Amino acid sequence: MSPRFDAIGIVVSDMGATLAFYRLLGLSFPENAEDEGHVEAELPGGTRLMFDTEDMVRSFDPTFEPPSGTARIGLAFLCESPDEVDRVYDTMCEAGHRSEREPFDAFWGQRYATVLDPQDRADLVACAADPTLDAEIVVARVALRRILGMLLTGRTPGADGAPLTAWDYARCAGLAFQGAGAVSRLLRARQSLTGGLEGALGSAMGQALKELGEEWGVEL
Questions:
Q1: 91-119 tens-digit pLDDT
Q2: CATH number of the domain that 35 lies in?
Q3: Three-class HEC string of 36-63
């Protein structure tokens, strides 16, 4: 029988502050557990999230020292909608928790925000997503960048790309507008983009040019 993933363990400096933080995100812990050395919550699916104080860890590992530097782990909490991301983020900040990144629309179609728990560990709050729709958004954006890249370079993709003909330019221009329309429709379906069609097309085209410029290392 293979080992079964069962729990995530995190060492905390302040158990009370840590429980208060995660209770705001919907996790349930035993009452009056703030002074305990070990506290855990059962997550959906049965996995446990376990917190141990530094003193508890030193009870079986006297050499333990808290790590320093940027956190390398983040716990992601799924929200029902982009608006819910904003609401949860505001709730966390109003409760005194620190923001690392304000809510933003990620390029793959989800809305994200980052707040920090008492251990400076980043927690990501993401909107609920249709995986198929998210995949379509990524594919549409990549295709749009490639089309715009051909229009800007005048060549087909690849190291041995051939020069575009007048017909190629006309076809790419049409595909670029179709691609921008596809991206904007998908984002609107994800409720990540609001406003009229003209603004949606401009937003999709502008984002694609920005990403293409970052890929090429130039400003477009």
A1: 999 999 999 888 887 655 678 888 988 88
A2: 3.10.180.10
A3: CCEEEEECCCCCEEEEEEHHHHHHHCCC
For the cut 80, the answer to whether the pLDDT of residue 173 exceeds it is no
- Mode of pairing for the β-strands spanning 98-105 and 38-42: unpaired
The position carrying tokens 């995530």 is: 8
- pTM comes to 0.57
Task: Measure Cα distances from 167 to 151, 156, 170, 177 in Å.
Answer: 12, 13, 5, 16
Helix (H, G, I), strand (E, B) or coil at 103: strand
CB 19 within 8 A of CB 36: no
Which string of DSSP letters, residue by residue, matches 108-139?
TS-EEEEEE-TT--EEEEEE---HHHHHHHHH
pLDDT exceeds cutoff 90 at 48: yes
Which residue type is seen at 7? Answer: A
Q: Which structure tokens are listed for 135?
A: 């995949």
**Domain count within the chain:** 3
Helix (H, G, I), strand (E, B) or coil at 105: strand
Other Cβ atoms closer than 10 A to 104: 12
- Specify the amino acid at residue 109: G
Please give the residue range of the domain that contains residue 31. 1-66
Instruction: Please answer whether residues 46 and 32 qualify as being in contact, where contact means their C-beta atoms are separated by less than 8 angstroms.
Output: no
Beta bridge partners of 148: none
Domain boundary among 16, 37, 66: 66
